[in-house]
Amino acid sequence: MKVNLFNPGPTRTRMRGAVMPGEDPMTLPAPEEVAATIVPLCLPSFTQSGKVYDFRRKELLSFQPPA
Q: Could you tell me the mean pLDDT of each successive run of 10 residues in the chain, 67 residues long?
């Protein structure tokens, strides 16, 4: 079993637009862009486990213990 987390960061959604009305939504990635990044991470050929993928950084990170 592989288990990873995915942090999309701020994403252009209606819900975010409702709670952040002054934010320019065009500065944020569309949900489709975020989803396209998730798909390869779910394929059997992706063998990493126990990590978190940070979409904004485009990087697979190790978990850090709480400070």
A: 94 96 96 96 95 96 84
Whole-Å CA distances, 44 to 5, 40, 48, 49:
16, 9, 10, 12
Q: Note the pTM of the prediction, 2 decimals.
A: 0.82
Long-range contact list for 37-40, CB < 8 A, 24+ apart?
38/6
Give the tokens for residue 9.
Answer: 């960061």
Which amino acid, residue 53? Y
Token pair belonging to 11: 């994403």
Structure tokens at 62: 């190790």
The strand ranges marked E within 11-58 are 51-54
